[in-house]
Design a protein that fits this description.
The complex is a heterodimer of chains A (about 180) and B (about 550). With about 180 residues, chain A is an alpha/beta fold. Chain A has six helices and eight strands; from the N terminus they run ββββααββαβαβαα. Chain A has a single domain, classed as Rossmann fold (3-Layer(aba) Sandwich), CATH 3.40.50. Chain B has a five-stranded antiparallel sheet with strand order 1-2-5-4-12. In chain B, α1 packs antiparallel against α2, α3 packs antiparallel against α12 and α14 packs across α16. Classes of the chains: A alpha/beta (about 180), B alpha+beta (about 550).
């Protein structure tokens, strides 16, 4: 049980049967099943066909805060999922990583927040492009759902709303 | 004054509800203090020595009389009947109970105010000068662009958990009265020969443990790119700024480590991706924001006023006050007035009682357009006063303890709250300020000394900006006792400079004597109209050192 909230077509739901296993520090030998691996471990585990972009990978990648998102560019077509780690909820690098993955690298697959993922930051994560949230183990995912909506007003723009308010406003959209 | 629209109102009210819920969850124990900390900071709530402190945002230092009366009500109902104006044009209440914060924020929201992002590792209150929109030397009013930046930075989801706090200031006048060069991003607005509005972008300024003045990163940036360029700077900083050591986490450290050229290259590369996107500002948006600032309905007046002239001729104290506390206005017949919050020993710098707040609000209604500004120097400005009303205003200000004629003089001290309130402070600041104000209480002597800024910080965090005071005093802890290190030669504005340490530190009791020594040296050496800071620059530290240490009988 990954304590997972997933957004599907804008609808949030709790996922009870998430198959993914996130290995922050992969042990050897690796366990069976779909894994989410740090970038270097993922690269090691892939065969040549996958690295060349000819075959889907069975494993997802988890980016650490210091990983450059640009490094994923070549692998995006074969990746089933990308996770980004919040080692602490106060470390905001993942917001920029997510924003860039969505807006600059064009990633459209699942983007999952893992690590210190808490209710009061979920709306910011959502606006930066995350669509799955593995809420910290000791917290209730059901409770965290309440943090997903955030506030109704966004002055600037975000990964899911590329137009700042002044452009939406001039388009005459209601509040 | 900026007028809220439905979006602004919805945001502040939703924010109050959100933070109320977070406070309740903290009180019930559902949120740990660690989890609550950044949430409360981003809502302006600090935990100090004795109580919570709430810092309320005063965007670019502009308040209405109605808003100030609400602040007075909060001071009376929830605090000990006073508030403290800060160097970043905000107001702090020092004796707040957690359970009451929701109600206070609700009252603020009713008058279009909030405490959002007045603390925390995010973009803070956007500041500019207190005379924005009225200064005679202004190119244009910087507040619409400041408001555009305020909106953009408010709850911007990508930049709420930066490595450290982030401060932005704008200046659109000949003189820089916003201390732009000590900000993380500083923006100088100007026009080119063709009249195009351009930005000179400065980056990497800040005081604290490692004081650094900002460096120019971009010249000639068309104003339409304001948001995209600031976004590029913030993204580079958010990705690459240090997070392993809070004392090395400000953008100034990143700029210094990379060098300004390499940092500028990173920003430029990022900016190329976003510059022509939807973040590009439009003239329509600029004009919309300009229109939300109600322009005062100025009367057509002669620049010279007969009554004002005769008051100057018969009332010397008034004339002296005018010479320091009244500033030229861009509209004929008007002036801007600075009400000093530094009367001397009767109250700490920047502190204003609820009665005084009501008095200021009344003055703004009676002699202005109900508008008030808070200056970086912690004083209060009435921006639009008819010259004909200056004498009456002066009399009333005096009766409320707000008429001290000391703006820009030695007793117009900038000081942090210090060890009396702050949990971070090494030493007290307020008693030091008061001991100096007591020593230099004689107004004639003060005026004869002329322009001289004195700044006091109770610790390395430098909230009192001691590095850029002509005289700076920094409180340091030596084996559990309080000592004070003195710097001279600092200055702010376009000729910003960091002060230099004159030598070993002093006890609190020695400080008035030390300041006396510095002032005496200046008097002995000054030429013609030279200001204190010019004399320091010309003759160097040595004569000051000699005088002070010989006099204090402390080995240099």
């Amino acid at each position: 049980m990954n304590n997972l909230i997933s957004l599907c077509a804008g609808q949030a739901r709790l996922v009870a049967d998430d198959p993914w296993q996130w290995l922050r520090e992969p042990m050897q030998p690796l366990p069976a099943g779909p894994l989410i691996l740090p970038l270097t471990a993922w690269l090691e585990r892939q065969d040549e066909a996958t690295l060349k972009g000819e075959r889907f990978s069975l494993d997802g990648i988890c980016l650490a805060p210091e990983d450059e998102v640009e490094r994923l560019h070549a692998y995006l077509p074969v990746l089933p999922l990308i996770a980004i780690e919040f080692p602490s909820f106060r470390d905001g690098r993942a917001y920029s990583q997510a924003y860039l993955l969505r807006t600059r690298l064009g990633w459209t697959g699942e983007l999952r927040a893992v690590g210190d993922v808490l209710r009061d930051q979920l709306s910011h994560m959502r606006q930066c492009g995350f669509d799955a949230f593995a809420v910290r183990e000791d917290k209730s995912a059901e409770d965290a759902l309440k943090g997903l909506a955030g506030m109704s007003v966004l002055y600037g723009r975000s990964a899911i709303e590329p137009r700042p308010l002044f452009r939406r406003r001039s388009a005459g959209e209601p509040l | 004054m900026y007028q809220y629209d439905d979006y602004d109102r919805a945001l502040v009210h939703e924010r109050v509800a959100q933070f109320r819920d977070q406070i309740e969850r903290r009180i019930s124990g559902e949120l740990s203090e660690e989890e609550f900390l950044p949430l409360r900071l981003q809502n302006g709530l600090y935990l100090q020595k004795h109580a919570y402190m709430l810092r309320v945002a005063i965007p670019y230092g502009t308040l209405s009389a109605r808003q100030l009366r609400t602040l007075a009500g909060i001071a009376k109902d929830y605090d000990r009947d006073y508030g403290h104006f800060t160097t970043r044009q905000n107001i702090q209440f020092n004796w707040i109970e957690l359970e009451q914060v929701g109600d206070i924020l609700e009252r603020l929201a009713e008058v279009e105010m909030h405490a959002i992002q007045t603390s925390g590792n995010c973009v803070r209150n956007i500041t500019t000068e207190a005379f924005a929109g009225v200064a005679a030397d202004e190119l244009l009013d910087p507040r619409p662009l400041a408001e555009i930046l305020r909106q953009w930075s408010t709850v911007n989801p990508e930049f709420l958990y930066l490595p450290r706090k982030f401060k932005i200031a704008l200046c659109a006048a000949q003189a820089d009265r916003a201390a732009v060069m000590m900000h993380d991003i500083g923006l100088y607005l100007y026009r080119d020969a063709a009249g195009e509005l351009l930005l000179r972008v400065m980056v990497g300024g800040g005081l604290g443990r490692t004081p650094i003045l900002s460096q120019q990163i971009r010249e000639g940036l068309p104003w339409q790119h304001l948001l995209s360029y600031v976004e590029a700077v913030l993204r580079v900083y958010n990705r690459h700024g240090r997070r392993d050591n809070k004392y090395k986490a400000r953008i100034k450290i990143l700029v210094k480590a990379l060098g300004i050229e390499a940092f500028a290259k990173e920003v430029e590369a990022e900016w190329q991706h976003i510059k022509d996107g939807p973040a590009e500002l439009t003239d329509a948006e600029y004009q919309r924001v300009v229109a939300t600032f109600d322009a005062p309905a100025y009367a057509t007046l002669d620049d010279a006023d007969l009554d004002y002239g005769s008051a100057l001729a018969r009332d010397d104290a008034f004339t002296r006050w005018v010479s320091r506390n009244v500033r030229p206005h861009k509209v004929a017949g008007y002036a801007s007035v600075v009400l000093s919050t530094k009367p001397g020993t009767s109250s700490p710098p920047g502190d204003v009682t609820s009665t005084q707040m009501h008095a200021i609000a009344d003055l703004a209604d009676d002699y202005g357009f109900g508008e008030i500004r808070i200056a970086h120097e912690q004083n209060v400005v009435l921006p639009d006063v008819r010259k004909a009303d200056l004498h009456a205003l002066y009399r009333r200000a005096l009766s409320h303890g707000l008429g001290t004629a000391n703006i820009g003089l030695l007793t117009d001290i900038i000081a942090c709250p210090g060890g009396d309130y702050c949990a971070l402070a090494n030493t007290k600041s307020i008693p030091i300020a008061q001991s100096i104000q007591q020593r230099f209480a004689d107004l004639d002597a003060l005026h004869e000394l002329g322009e001289l800024s004195l700044n006091i910080s109770g610790c390395m965090n430098a909230c009192g900006h001691h590095h850029i005071g002509n005289i700076g005093i920094l409180g340091v802890d030596k084996n559990g006792s309080e000592w004070y290190q003195v710097t001279i030669g600092g200055s702010k504005g376009k000729a910003s400079a960091l002060g230099k340490i004159i030598g070993p530190s002093f006890s609190a009791a020695q400080i008035p004597e030390v300041i006396d020594g510095l002032v005496k040296t200046y008097r002995d050496y000054r030429e013609a109209d030279e200001r204190f800071v010019d004399t320091v620059q010309r003759i160097g530290l040595e004569p000051f050192k000699q005088q002070v240490y010989r006099q204090a009988q402390v080995p240099a």
